[in-house]
Amino acid sequence: MHGNGVTYVFTRRLFYSCSTKNTRAEKKIVAKERKAKRQKNFDIIQEATKLWETLRQTTTAKEKRVELVGDILKICGDRVGDLAASHTASRIIQSCVKHGNGDDRLAVQHQVMPKIVELAKNPYGRFIVSKLISTAPKDQLPGMTHVVYVLHESMEHNHPWPLIEQTALSS
């Protein structure tokens, strides 16, 4: 801090000053605006996060959870495959797969299957692929495990190992 009451803050690419008179709420608003510029699906993730907070509570009734899962999937639309690579959105989609009914799981699976290779490489997306494999009915499992085995044979990447072990145990 310099004598004029201004603190200079250095980030990766930005240089900005924060007056010490700014309140905490103002600083949070500025941080949220920066995040919105940086992340392309920020608004969708924020809306889904609000519903997810209710979904993940243990006191939420099962019928309410199914309703919340439907609402979250409506908000996400057909961007589930893109959102799955984000940390927060990945956890939201995992909860949708866990608490949703069979139709919800199938909808997520259909949106994720074209991008399963990229998601299996992604440190956050691999958990969705793992959750889909663990919750899939036995008639859908052979197609999914084949994709994961082909993926493992075609690349040298550490992330698919838990997936391979899980599919071998569940077969």
Q: List the helices and strands in order.
A: EEHHHHHHHHHH
Question: Mind telling me which CATH architecture of the largest domain this is?
Answer: Alpha Horseshoe
Overall strand count? 2
Read across the widest sheet, the strand sequence of neighbours is 1-2
Radius of gyration: 20 Å
Task: Tell me briefly what this model is.
By secondary structure, this protein is mainly alpha-helical. It has helices spanning 24-38, 42-55, 62-76, 80-83, 87-99, 102-112, 116-121, 125-135, 141-154, 161-170, and strands at residues 6-10, 15-19.
Quick tags:
66% helix; mainly alpha; Leucine-rich Repeat Variant; 2 domains; globular; two-stranded antiparallel sheet
Describe the protein's architecture and organization:
By secondary structure, this protein is mainly alpha-helical. It has two domains: 1-38, no CATH class; 41-170, Leucine-rich Repeat Variant, CATH 1.25.10.10. 66% of the residues lie in helices and 6% in strands. It contains ten helices and two strands; from the N terminus they run ββαααααααααα. A two-stranded antiparallel sheet has the order 1-2. Helix 8 (125-135) runs parallel beside helix 10. The radius of gyration is 20 Å and the shape is globular.
Topology of this protein?
Blueprint: E1 6-10, E2 15-19, H1 24-38, H2 42-55, H3 62-76, H4 80-83, H5 87-99, H6 102-112, H7 116-121, H8 125-135, H9 141-154, H10 161-170
Antiparallel strand pairs: 1-2
Helix pairs in contact: 2-3, 2-5, 3-5, 5-8, 8-10, 9-10
